[in-house]
Design a protein that fits this description.
The chain is mainly alpha-helical. The chain has helices at about 10-20, 25-30, 35-45, 65-70, 75-90, 95-105, 110-115, 115-130, 135-140, 145-150, 165-175, 185-195, 225-235, 240-250, 260-270, 275-285, 300-310, 320-330, 350-365, 380-385, 395-405, 415-425, 440-450, and strands spanning about 195-200, 200-205, 215-220, 220-225. The strands form two sheets. It has a two-stranded antiparallel ribbon. A two-stranded antiparallel ribbon has the order 3-4. The chain is globular, with a radius of gyration of 24 Å.
Length: about 450
């Protein structure tokens, strides 16, 4: 580990804001309690934890048309999404769910085409199993994952006239990137990936549907490949490690990759035979990750905004239906990415429409009303929240503390003065108290103004 890296709240706050869906004051205090990056990463952030129990018993029901006819799948998908939100909200200091979302976006599948939430749940748990694990093995498992077989049309692919969708995406989007394979590589690989069919909750191999040739040639090698040996061969290409590391860099560090550093990451990934945990540890203990220009340079995704704002406010029982509905408006419905390339992210998250809806969402946590007037349950108790701070009765210090907790981007003095004015709401600092009749409204007004700032959109 780089000895130059200083252990302080600035660095730890930055780390938490990237590896978690936001954090509360108590999360930060707990993280600081580890005393060094090594322990914080090993014992909390990157610690292996068991997969959670399922949202409900329907996950084990054999998918059948009757479930769609009776409109059962829709409510199950809502339940599944809320279950995942619950995992994110209660993640404590574990990066597991952040990695599950990263992998869901990387191996993008749309619920609209897969149709059955059972398959989508199964894939979601698969990502959890491999969150810090063997990426190469994950690609092998995903090649016969029912959701993926349905989504990229492998389900009925026969070796005689194979469907090329999965073979194309596995190279273009999942492992190598454009320019590192030929059209012929795709055609031949498609033969290898054929023969798998979804039966019930699993996929089974039918040799009569597989390719007949003695060998096929993919990426310069001729062999009687099967899924696993072909994927092993794909991962021998230099481009593979760099492609995956670039994607991780763009997600967790900065949206424009630093190619020199990506190459360093790729060395670590290859040395560890494509296991993700050592790579993540290398990244989060590197000076590159803590450069001042990297901090607060990521636009929060709608999921980060939704879950993170509720965490910062330490809401006891957030309204998950509000989350579900707002995520659709903010253009990040979980399990329904726009296409096989996933969500583009960064600048795409903010438009003149979504920006005002983002403020509408954070407002709703404080007002108990959505932008359309619908009631939101579990809204903030502003007085109780303010009194969690030892500065609750000192307005200037309280504003400073909240700004430090809520906003990653350094605010100007005039911005802070504006927020203090909002909090005081016409009274003078000397008269400020959380015990005055208007205090709750004033705290709410202040929190609203702070969470409406453009700087609040950055992580």
């Amino acid at each position: 580990m780089d000895t130059m890296l200083t252990w302080n709240t600035t660095h730890v706050s930055h780390l938490l804001s990237r590896v978690l869906f936001g954090y509360s004051k108590s999360d930060l205090e707990r993280a600081m309690g580890y005393g060094n990056f090594q322990d914080l990463l090993d014992l909390a952030i990157l610690k292996d934890i068991p997969n959670p129990s399922p949202p409900d018993t329907w996950v084990d029901l054999t998918p059948e048309q009757a479930q769609l006819d009776r409109n059962l799948a829709g409510p199950w998908f809502v339940q599944l999404t809320k279950w995942w939100y619950g995992r994110m909200f209660n993640e404590s200091l574990s990066m597991q769910e952040k990695m599950v979302l990263f992998l869901h976006n990387h191996f993008s599948n749309e619920r609209q085409k897969v149709n059955y939430p059972q398959y989508v749940y199964k894939q979601n748990q698969l990502f959890r199993t491999y969150a810090f694990g063997d990426f190469k093995q994950l690609v092998k498992d995903i090649s016969i994952d029912p959701s993926m077989l349905i989504y990229l049309d492998g389900n009925n692919s026969r070796g005689t006239s194979p469907n090329e969708n999965y073979a194309r995406e596995v190279m273009e989007l999942f492992t190598l990137g454009i320019g590192n394979y030929t059209e012929n590589d795709i055609k031949q690989a498609a033969r290898v990936f054929s023969g798998w069919q979804v039966k019930g909750l699993v996929a089974v191999f039918d040799a009569t549907r597989w390719y007949r040739e003695a060998t096929v040639t993919v990426l310069g090698k001729s062999a009687k490949f099967d899924n696993n040996s072909l994927i092993d061969h794909i991962f021998t290409q230099t481009a593979a490690a760099e492609f995956i590391c670039r994607k991780i860099y763009k997600e967790f560090v900065y949206y424009k990759a630093d190619e020199v550093f990506v190459k360093k990451m790729a060395v670590v990934l290859r040395q560890n035979n494509f296991v993700l945990k050592p790579l993540l540890k290398f990244l989060f203990t590197s000076e590159e990750f803590y450069k001042p220009e990297i901090m607060a340079a990521k636009i929060k995704s709608p999921t980060e905004l939704i879950v993170g704002s509720a965490k910062q406010l330490e809401l006891k029982n957030p309204d998950l239906q509000n989350w579900y509905d707002m995520a659709i408006i903010l253009q990040m419905q979980l399990f329904q990415p726009p296409n096989v390339a996933g969500w583009e992210g960064q600048r795409d998250w903010i438009s003149s429409t979504t920006y005002s809806y983002r403020s509408g969402f954070t407002d709703s946590l404080l007002s108990g009303k959505r932008y359309n007037g619908a009631t939101v349950t579990g809204k903030l108790d502003p007085i109780a929240f303010a009194r969690l701070s030892s500065n609750a009765e000192k307005p200037k210090e309280f504003v400073e503390e909240m700004v430090k907790l809520f906003i990653r981007f350094p605010l100007t003095e005039s911005r802070k003065a504006f927020l203090l004015e909002v909090l005081l709401d016409g009274t003078i600092a000397a008269n400020w108290s959380t015990y005055t009749p208007n205090a709750d409204a004033r705290i709410n007004k202040f929190l609203k103004a702070m969470m409406r700032l453009p700087e609040y959109q950055l992580a």
